[in-house]
Amino acid sequence: MSNVSQPALGSKLRNINFGFDRFSGLYIWGLFIVVFAIWVPDSFFDLDTAQGLASEKSIIVLIALALMIPLAAGAYDLSVGATTNISAVVVAKLQTDAGWPMWNAIAMAVGTGALIGIINGFVVVKLKVNSFIATLAMASVIASAIIIITGQRQPIPPMDKPWLNLTQYEVFGFQSVALIVLAFAFIFWWFMQHTPPGRFIYAVGGNPEAARLSGVKVGKWTWVSLIISGTTCGVAGVLYASLIGVSLTFGGSLLLPAFAAVFLGSTQFLPGRFNVWGTVLAVLVLATGVKGLQLATGQQWLESMFNGVALVAAVSFAVWRQNRSKARARSKELAGRETK
Amino acid sequence: MSGSLNQEGQAASRPALSATHLSKAFGGILALNDVSLEINASEVHALLGENGSGKSTFIKILSGYHRPEDGGEVLINGEKLTFASPTSTYDLGCRFVHQDLGLISTSSILDNLYFNAGFPTRLGTIQGRSARKRAAVDLEKVGLSIDPRQLVANLTPSMRTGVAIARALLNDESSHVRLLVLDEPTATLPQNEVESLLNIVRTTAQSGVAVLYVTHRLDEVFQIADNITVLRDGSKVATTPTSSLDRRELINLLVGTEFEDIHVESQNLHSEHGADVLTVENLISGPLDRVGFSARPGDVVGFAGITGSGRESVLGATFGATPRDGGTVVIAGATIPPRKPANSMAAGMAYLPPDRKVSGGFMDSSARDNVTISNIQKFWRGFNINRKAENREVAQWFSELGVRPSGAIALPLFGFSGGNQQKVLFAKWLSRTPKVLLLDEPTQGVDVGAKAELHRRLLKAASDGAAVIISSSDVDELAAVCHRVYVMRDGHIVKQLDGSALTVANITRECLGSQEEKSE
Q: With an 8 Å Cβ cutoff, is B362 touching chain A?
């Protein structure tokens, strides 16, 4: 029976240990920085590298955050990449070809993302199609829609100052896109950790039946999570178009890095739970690792390889940790259980 | 059967199962106390006993799950069983069919039969025709003549059980089936299906297999069993041929003759009753057939009944957890729409589901999140959730209910023992101060200390003015805490017990009563 006091003891120990279980990502990040600073000191330990990395990865962070919300509610959104893509197409085309004012075009692009979220939610909640299937199909539909809208011609975003300044205005050497995404991260963190809807979304993802019996409207919050995800991808598309430009197919390559980041993030800070700062940290760790290796070896295939391996490693690590702590809890319960 | 080991020639006279001096203690409490049992080939032997009598423990020893205390021995057809070894159990020829049959309903009978045992194949391809032929033979053994290509989903419940039995009886080269254990096979079967299942069991026994038949339904015991063993409080009360007993004698063996005068705590509650706060009329849902009851503030009302009686469905249908096909539920004048838990809660109902792992709790979330999920708006202060107030309230519930480890409000729910998990879920609903508190199996899998604490709390809720409705398979619990108990059988309330008639023995008697008695 002595192990009943284990959790209390554990939390006491946590105060003096180095938090390897919850903050391993920070250590790995530090390790990457040190290793590459020694390995390729000239190119890696360069402020430009850090700033370039920050803006380049900001958009991945935003898409990963978008994806995190439905995942927390237990629903997949495989259309995040495609939604980002169509939003970028819309915002560019409306300005250049239709001559819309910038902010109207942005509103339309974000609205397109929201509409996709609403349709995803309808298919998942009302038609009861598995979210994996529904959003995979949606990604395919969006890909066609992009071709219809553009007639296969790559839209050229405007080149005027306000449009470029949206993401490339420099603040302390960092581009404004990083600050916008940081602001989004704070809003998402506040929403998920400090408001009742955040609790409801986690509850739906944790155990939908228990959530329903607790008075949580499972369908509503699943739907809301998909709308948030679509809308956020609408924003991500606008930022992408302003920062990098538009192609007809860039969206597909954003999906896997986002997934890898969210799952890797679920092993950090609040283990076992998809969370904002874990996700942000995961993007940074992955990006630093990839960048360093690229600088050191010059290989271009590293990024996909790194993300793929990291996704599998993150998920297997999370499963292993969960099983371990559950096994502990079970053996404790068996020891103290009454006879049946 | 002494010296059976050197009587190789008399294999036929060896008992299929010979268990001697089996005991099992959990934490110093004897769940099984020196039980011996013998079953011959082709015999159907009924094992009877109330919940907690030691039946499950006995079966779990046979199945290799528990290891009995030293001194116990089990021989299967004369060969000694290695304890706590499921493979030894299987190799010696013991097979188990549980209430949850473990069939895949979207697959065919054929696939279900051979998923485990293996299909007849040539070069890795399943040989359809010979597989079907073999399946027909295997189904014939349990008296089923059905096309093995049918989907399990399309079968009647008794046929499904038959398929599960046929699968259990599949012989492989290494072991010959000696003993079949059926754990409450009829619990969830409709009355008209029971007869066909009993035929399946008879056919099985005639093929030379010994059958250990565990049930709560006395009618079928008299129809099928050759011998009966009754367990009570972990000890064997009797083993007798079925023909030597009548129904009343059997009930007396089950219930015991001594009067268990448990202190009826609820009778000391003085509640200023007044008008009904909950009225349920003509409730139709699952097995329930026009069930009606009501409760006043301060009442503690119990529902008793064996599995399949409808007792398990009453509270879920009342709350709206499960669909309702008819009937009305009225709380304090407001009619509650079916299948809308949020509306039921808004009207003042609270519902503790029977299975905390599946539908009660968020096992991966902290205890705090579990307590406040259905009441989180209370802590919203315009911009964020007031964590301090939230933590304070949860900590208060922790100390009030004596949750261990104390103060661990951030620990995930799976880190608590069963009793403490249940306390956390109690806190969740009590914190809403409901008008009507529905508790389904409130103390299942909970240790004795936690049980007393939970009982004390639910009585306090009643004395504070809530109507408390308990559905429980634990008859002692119902007798101990309820003002009155409704006994259910076949989807109806057949008896209301209160006052001095509210005893463990009476509840059990009524639960086990048969159709015929009711019409007499």
A: yes
